[in-house]
Design a protein that fits this description.
Blueprint (H helix, E strand, L loop, with lengths): L1 H6 L2 E5 L4 E6 L13 H18 L6 E11 L7 E11 L3 E9 L5 E12 L2
Antiparallel strand pairs: 1-2, 2-4, 3-6, 4-5, 5-6
GO molecular function: 1,4-dihydroxy-2-naphthoyl-CoA thioesterase activity
Family: Belongs to the thioesterase PaaI family.
Keywords: Hydrolase
Length: 121
């Protein structure tokens, strides 16, 4: 994922049951006041969730996001943003993934739920 790589997303674990990734806080990823930009947060969540969906696809299929919703609970002003993605539903035509967004202490900063279409030839 070139965009995620350019932003600095790092993948630390990837299985069909759980994907873990992180993004380090950096001033160039922030809004006013040193808060990590929501777009950066959503990029991490979307990337981890898409990898989770991809790992649950049947052979020969691909995927595309059809819906994504993020709830923000608190801001990140330092440290690292961690994402933990797990499948909620793996079906024939769609896969739904939930991603927890956590700070370095494990405090929840938000979560994303996204649905991916299962695209077959």
């Amino acid at each position: 994922m070139p965009f995620a790589q350019a932003l600095g997303v790092h993948l630390t674990e990837a299985t069909p049951h759980e994907v873990r990734a992180h993004l380090d806080w950096a001033p160039q990823h922030c809004t006013a006041g040193g808060v990590l930009h929501g777009g950066a947060v959503m990029t991490l969540a979307d990337s981890a969730g898409a990898i989770c969906a991809h790992l649950n696809l049947p052979d020969g299929a691909s995927t595309a996001t059809t819906e994504s919703k993020t709830n923000f609970f608190r801001a990140l002003r330092e440290g690292t943003l961690h994402a933990v993605s797990r499948p909620l539903h793996v079906g024939r035509t769609s896969i739904t993934v939930q991603t927890e967004l956590l700070d370095d202490t494990g405090r929840r900063l938000g979560h994303t739920t996204q649905t991916q279409a299962v695209l077959t030839a």
